[in-house]
Amino acid sequence: MLIQEHKKSWIEDFKLIKSVINDALMNLNISVEHIGSTAVPKLAAKPIIDIDIVYGNDIHIEAVKKGLEKIGYFHNGNQGIINREVFKRGMLGNKHQILDTITHHLYVCPIDSEELRRHILFRNYLIANESARIEYQKLKYKIAAAANQDKKQYAVLKEVKARAFINDILTKADQL
Questions:
Q1: Does some domain include residue 19?
Q2: Range of the domain at 65
């Protein structure tokens, strides 16, 4: 199944990855945020840990980029989203016991990034509002069924079918 019931191990997986990132970037003023559905207790999700590395105004993205390159990531552009840079695992053969065994997406955002703000607002709203979490979970299962459990089709359908729900949640969260 594409969407799985929430696993407590997702929180531990995040902590393991965060520890490696913090060690690699220990001289930089950054924070590491667990975002996305795996960060929301009791929410079913694709088993992929989404992570935002957040850097302050006193740091340049190049410093973060160099630190991530040392542990096998490469910069993959912003993929069309301003102030959110995508990093992927390198293909240079340098395997890492944690980073290459836990499926994850890694983003780097300045502290004033709108996308970061949206990630945090959405996550926090779902954590605080059980009915919204349940409704979102039902929507995710419905989209996965419509996509016939295909990852690529799911992503396309989710972009269209979940957009209104997500925007509604963000509007509600902004009013709090």
A1: yes
A2: 9-174
Q: What is the DSSP secondary-structure string of 85-123?
A: EEEEE-SSS---TTTTTS-EEEEEEETT-HHHHHHHHHH
How many structural domains comprise the chain?
1
Which residue do the tokens 């220990």 mark? 26
Q: In what order do the strands lie in the sheet with 73-75?
A: 30-35, 49-55, 104-110, 85-89, 73-75
Phi–psi pair at 44, nearest 5 degrees: -65, 150
Gyration radius (Cα) of the chain, Å: 16
Residue 133 within any structural domain of the chain: yes
The pTM for the full model equals 0.94
From residue 63, how far is each of 46, 81, 122, 143, 160 by CA, in Å?
A: 31, 20, 28, 39, 36
Task: Spell out the alpha helix ranges (H) of 6-150.
Answer: 9-24, 61-70, 114-128, 130-146
Q: What is the pLDDT of residues 76-107, one digit of tens each?
A: 999 999 999 999 997 666 789 999 999 999 99
- Model pLDDT for residues 126-151, shown as the tens digit of each residue: 999 999 999 999 999 999 999 999 99
20-69 tens-digit pLDDT:
999 999 999 999 999 999 999 999 999 999 999 999 999 999 999 999 99
| Torsion angles phi and psi, residue 135, rounded to 5 | -65, -40
Does the CA dihedral 142-87-112-47 come out positive or negative?
positive
Side chain identity, residue 127: I
